[in-house]
Each structure stands twice: as structure tokens, then as C-alpha cells.
Specification:
Elements: H1 8-17, H2 20-27, E1 45-52, E2 75-77, E3 84-86, H3 90-93, E4 99-106, H4 112-121, H5 134-142, E5 152-155, E6 172-174, H6 192-213, H7 217-232, H8 247-253, H9 257-270, E7 275-281, H10 289-313, E8 320-325, E9 329-330, E10 342-343, E11 347-352, E12 360-362, E13 377-378, H11 379-390, E14 397-399, E15 405-407
Parallel strand pairs: 1-7, 1-8, 4-12, 4-13, 5-6, 5-7
Antiparallel strand pairs: 2-3, 4-11, 8-11, 9-10, 14-15
Helix pairs in contact: 2-7, 9-10
């Protein structure tokens, strides 16, 4: 289905005369509080493949062949010497020379919501402050003010938002990848003139509300609305629609929501989007862990592999950081329902591209996958590694609304051996 955008010339002409246009200009201008300073970036974009629910490290990226904890799946050799993966990841095994497997991840957060928050933000949740996710920091610190597309996009799930950096730095959420976003055309019965009047009326109400209350959230709401209007007019909006891609390309990603999401991610980073998260749900395998994990790996393997191939073929893998992880691992022991339960003590994350040294396994677990036997890698260290590669200083600090200084990570240190 070819995407037909609205009449941009007419809307722009009318919008320029509306009161809302001044709002849009303010919302899209640089914020002096976010001077673009930090380490020299290796990556200009990040794609996070989020395995929601917590995948079993033993059944995916850290197999334990021959051990009672291993389960029925075989471990297979890969293109990286000495590294084995699950037999259900044959395409990634053939590309393991591009991967850095962080097998020493460890956390204390075993509740889904808390662990998901922790891995996205680098902070354990508290009742006093809502921390920004790494995608939000990327939006606030690195996004070009004049960019046509959102700086932070989440495909297939809501991700985590801007926290105290404001809703304007939260993700633009696309529930299903592959087609144009919903509601980018004017609704029936609303022409460009009427739309401009509505925007002007909204701006007037926001101005009155801000004067009466002094609510600082008004600016964030205005920026969100301005970005939405800007997106409706963007020539690059077709990045979300994969119908123009050759069938051979779409087939390599596989005909799944996740595969289409990964193809959208490639199209978005090509067009300058700084952070894209693609969600593959279903990894909470308390029951039937082996069958469900095999099915999910059958979705992950072609999409992840095709993304690496496409980025490499276009010469942008070196400048695009690709990360794949969930919120924790799963128990070495197998429960009565042929499942595995939550196990934050030990799990794996995968990195590729964007300044990452490929073909390595960093850290190790014991023979049963129950504990980390090398120095553990903590979540803030992983976030510090990713932020450093993106050109974000992990120690950069902003003041929260409560007047508390908050840095990009909670004292995380970049893992230098992972750098190419």
C-alpha cells in the first residue's frame, strides 16, 4: 500500500499564518540546557531489539551443552571461534563475527516492571523521580532540532519515556511496523483551514492555562503537538511504510510483526532517526519454555540477521549500534511446567556495529549458567557503554524537577574491552 501524505504545501502555507506557527518554531528550536557535548561518537544511531519478558540465556546466547540445565536444544558452533549459540539461531551463528556477547550481565531486579525500567534507564525505580530512558537522553541531547522524523521511535511496544526530560523526549510509538503511522492525514470533514484554526485555538488555551497555573508541563505538551504536526508534513514519513521495499528484502526479515519492525528500523536510521526500539514480546516462559523459546528464536533469528546484513550492505553498520536484550535471564533449573522462572543474577545481552568489537564473548557464567564467574557486568555499565558509543557522556548531569542532579547512568562505567 503506497502512502499518500496530506497536501503539505497548503497546510504549511496556512499554518504559517496561524498563531500555532510560533509555537512550532519554539518547540523545534535547540534547548540551551542541552549543549551537544560529550565523547566523540562511534555510532550515530541505536537500534534496540527488546526481548520483552526476559529470555533464557541458557536457551539462546549462553548454551550449556551436556549439562542438566541445558534443555533439549543443541548448541552449534558459530563463525566466531570458541563461541556457541542455540541451534535455533543458525543465521546469527553465521554472523557471530559481528556480535559481542555480554554473558556476565547481573542485576538484583527480578520483577518485570522494575527490571524493564532498570534496563531502559540504568536506574532502579524510585518514588521520587522518573528517570529518562536511553532513547530519551538520545532525543534530548543528540537530536537535530530541524529533523523531520521523531528522534526516538518504538515499534511494537510503548518503551519507556522521557522521565524528567519531558514528554517531548518520549518515544513515538508505532504499534505495528510496516505501514504509515495512524492518523497522519486530516480526519474526514476537517480541511487545512479548519485544522489551522484548531491549532490556533489549542495554542490560545495552552497560553491561558500556563499563565494561570505556571505549569511547566505545558511546554512539553506544546512540543509534542508541534512535533506531531511537523511529522504530518514530513517528506521522510514514508520511512515507516515498507511496501516500496523489494519482496526479496522483506522476505529476508520474515513475514512477522517483529521482522517488519526491524526493516522499519533500518529505514528510520537511514533517514536520521537516532534511537529505534523494536519489541518482540512473549519471553516470559514460565510454561513450555523450550517450545515457546524455539518459536521466538525463529522470529528473532532472520530479522536480527537481515538487519545486520542490510546495515552492513549500506555501509552504516559501523555507525549504527545494534543491541539485543531483555530485562533478565531465566532459571537454570526447569520447573514442573517445563518452564524457567525469573533469574536476574545471570543473563546475556548482545551488541553489534557502532564501534563494537565483534566475534567475542565478554564475561562468563558457570557450567550450569547459574552464576557469573567473571566480574559481573551491571546494568549501568551496559548503559554507559551504549551511551559512550553514541557520543553521550555517561556522567552528564541534569537537574530533576525536585532539584536533584541525575546523570545519564547510575555511576556506570563504559566497558572498554567491547570497543573496536
Amino acid at each position: 500500500m503506497a502512502f499518500q501524505p496530506m497536501n503539505r504545501r497548503r497546510l504549511l502555507s496556512i499554518g504559517a499564518r496561524a498563531a500555532f506557527s510560533s509555537l512550532a518554531l519554539r518547540a523545534l528550536s535547540p534547548r540551551s540546557a542541552f549543549a551537544k557535548q560529550g565523547p566523540a561518537p562511534k555510532a550515530h544511531a541505536c537500534v534496540l531489539l527488546w526481548l520483552n519478558g526476559g529470555p533464557s540465556h541458557i536457551d539462546t546466547f549462553d548454551p550449556k551443552p551436556g549439562r542438566p540445565t541445558a534443555g533439549p536444544a543443541k548448541a552449534i558452533k558459530t563463525r566466531a571461534s570458541g563461541i556457541m549459540l542455540s541451534e535455533h539461531l543458525p543465521l546469527l551463528a553465521a554472523r557471530a563475527d559481528k556480535l559481542a556477547l555480554v554473558r556476565s550481565m547481573s542485576s538484583k531486579e527480578g520483577n518485570h516492571e522494575r527490571a524493564q525500567y532498570y534496563v531502559h534507564t540504568g536506574y532502579a525505580p524510585t518514588t521520587t523521580v522518573v528517570h529518562p530512558s536511553l532513547g530519551a537522553w538520545t532525543s534530548a541531547r543528540l537530536a537535530a532540532p530541524s529533523a523531520e522524523l521523531p528522534a526516538f521511535v518504538s515499534v511494537g511496544g510503548p518503551s519507556f519515556g522521557g522521565g524528567f526530560l519531558g514528554v517531548q523526549n518520549g518515544p513515538f510509538v508505532v504499534q505495528k511496523g510496516g505501514g504509515p503511522p495512524a492518523d497522519v492525514d486530516l480526519p474526514r470533514g476537517v480541511d487545512a483551514e479548519r485544522f489551522a484554526r484548531r491549532l490556533a485555538a489549542l495554542d490560545s488555551m495552552e497560553t491561558r492555562f500556563a499563565r494561570a497555573t505556571g505549569d511547566g508541563k505545558v511546554d512539553g505538551r506544546r512540543q509534542v503537538v508541534a512535533k506531531a504536526v511537523h511529522l504530518m508534513q514530513a517528506p521522510k514519513l514514508d520511512a515507516f511504510d515498507i511496501s516500496s521495499e523489494p519482496a526479496s528484502v522483506r522476505d529476508r526479515y520474515d513475514d512477522t510483526d517483529f521482522g517488519r519492525g526491524c526493516l522499519v528500523a533500518r529505514r528510520l536510521v537511514e533517514r536520521g532517526v537516532g534511537f529505534v526500539e523494536v519489541v518482540l514480546d512473549g519471553w516470559d516462559t514460565h510454561k513450555d519454555n523450550f517450545g515457546r523459546s524455539a518459536n521466538l528464536m525463529g522470529i528473532l533469528d532472520p530479522a536480527f540477521s537481515a538487519l545486520l546484513d542490510d546495515l552492513s550492505a549500506r555501509g552504516i553498520l559501523a555507525s549504527t549500534l545494534v543491541a539485543c536484550m531483555g530485562e533478565f535471564g531465566r532459571t537454570p533449573h526447569i520447573n514442573a511446567n517445563e518452564g524457567r522462572d525469573h533469574w536476574p543474577q545471570t543473563w546475556s545481552a548482545v551488541l553489534a556495529g557502532g564501534g563494537i568489537r565483534g566475534g567475542i564473548a565478554y564475561g562468563a557464567t558457570d557450567e550450569d549458567g547459574a552464576s557469573v564467574v567473571t566480574p559481573p557486568t551491571h546494568v549501568p555499565d551496559l548503559i554507559a557503554t551504549m551511551s559512550t558509543l553514541l557520543g553521550l557522556d555517561p556522567d552528564h548531569t541534569e537537574m530533576s524537577p525536585a532539584g536533584r542532579p541525575i546523570s545519564v547512568t547510575d555511576q556506570g562505567q563504559a566497558i572498554r574491552p567491547l570497543f573496536a
